[in-house]
Amino acid sequence: MRYKSNDRQVFKEIMEVTKTNMERACILLESDVKKSMAGQRTGRKYKRGKKWHYASIKGETPAIDTGRLWNSITHRLSTDTGRATIGNPVPENKADDGIKAPRSRKKVIIGVVGSNVEYALDLETAKKRPFLSPALFRNESKIKEILQGK
Fold first, then answer.
1. Which end of the chain has the least Cβ crowding within 10 Å, N or C?
2. Please, are residues 40 and 54 in contact by the beta-carbon 8 Å criterion?
3. Residue 85: partners with Cβ closer than 8 Å, 6 or more residues away
4. What contacts 61, CB < 8 A, 6 or more positions away?
């Protein structure tokens, strides 16, 4: 009797299901970030061309003004031992905005949601107008369920 292992096929199928689930989780998060940025804010009101703009205050998600930040929010998956970065590849896989996935020596699937606009990280941290982290916290249990295949 001869034994033939199907380990590689099983591993490949597991990775495909995991990749699909990671994609679903990233889409959920990306969608929530964009939804959270819609609507009027409570900050200063000023005229921008022919329209009135309501700025955000500390603690609120950034108000949509030109739409540049909103349009730049996207996701990427990495299915190797490299890094997934948002934006154009630059030397040493360092994105200009600092959004990158950690390096791993094992075959992993990494999902990254973020923006490549130069002021995104500043809004999220220094200017205290977070848009990524609140969406992650709001959806933590849903994301866990998706990644568990539920």
1. N
2. yes
3. 76, 93, 94, 95, 99, 100, 101, 112
4. 36, 37, 129, 130, 131, 134
At 37 the three-state DSSP class reads: helix
Q: What is the pLDDT of residues 19-75, one digit of tens each?
A: 999 999 999 999 999 999 998 888 999 998 898 889 899 999 999 988 999 999 999
Nearest to 82 by CA among 49, 65, 106: 106
Asked if 116 and 124 touch (Cβ cutoff 8 Å), the reply is: no
**CA pair distance 46, 140, nearest whole angstrom:** 36
Beta-bridge partner residues of 51:
48
Provide the token pair at 39. 């609507």
